[in-house]
Amino acid sequence: MAQREERGARMLGTKIKKRRFGVGEYHRMAEVGILGEDDRVELADGEVVEMTPVGWRHVRAVTVLTQLLAGTLPGHYVSVQNPVVFGERDERQPDLALVRAGALEGSLPTAADVALVVEVAETSLLYDREVKVPLYARAGIPEAWVVDLEAATVEVHAAPGASPGERYAKKRTFGREEELISFTVPDLRFAVGDVVGRG
């Protein structure tokens, strides 16, 4: 018994090494069937992370935003829950992204092809705000939104890399009764209540 406890203590004191995957390896997992089409996952800093299930409010917000963003920026398409490559070990699936049209020919878009990203948070607020938004800032995405369905607000972040820690320098939160005005996309404005619901 004492030997088993000693062995267990030694194992607990050992540093566990994680095997991180690159984007190419991640794609090969799908090609050989390790990951299926119905798996809701993304590659986050080399780790395959399961994404949270979506409810009806999330679906509604994404659908409404898709219509509101369509055609707002010439030469860009609205990409809905599709992958964007952010680095050798990062391929995320923002809920929405305004992606340069030419980037959709022959390869997946990269951060340099994205003008705006949107994350709709029903159960994932902390992850979206504390993990994804800083990643988008480090990658140089001009503007990132977090739609907080519980609080009925939209956080708008802009000016990446202009503050310590490579976070966004500008942030404004728009409430249900307000009109959202984009920092970076000309003439992009709409009633927040149309997205989060009227209460």
If strands are numbered along the chain, what order do they take across the biggest sheet?
Answer: 3-6-7-8-9-10
Q: Report the biggest beta sheet as strand number plus sense, adding barrel if it closes.
A: 6 strands, mixed
Strand content: 25-35%
**Classification by helices and strands:** alpha+beta
Mean pLDDT, rounded to whole units? 85
Q: Note poorly predicted spans.
A: none
Count of runs of 4 or more consecutive helical residues: 5
Helix percentage range: 25-40%
CA-CA gap between termini: 61 Å
Q: What order do the helices and strands follow?
A: HHEEHEEEEEHEEEEEH
Q: What best-fitting shape do the alpha-carbon axes yield?
A: globular
Please tell me how large the radius of gyration is.
Answer: 19 Å
Number of strands: 12
Protein name: Uma2 family endonuclease
Domain Putative restriction endonuclease: 25-192
Organism: Rubrobacter radiotolerans
GO molecular function: endonuclease activity
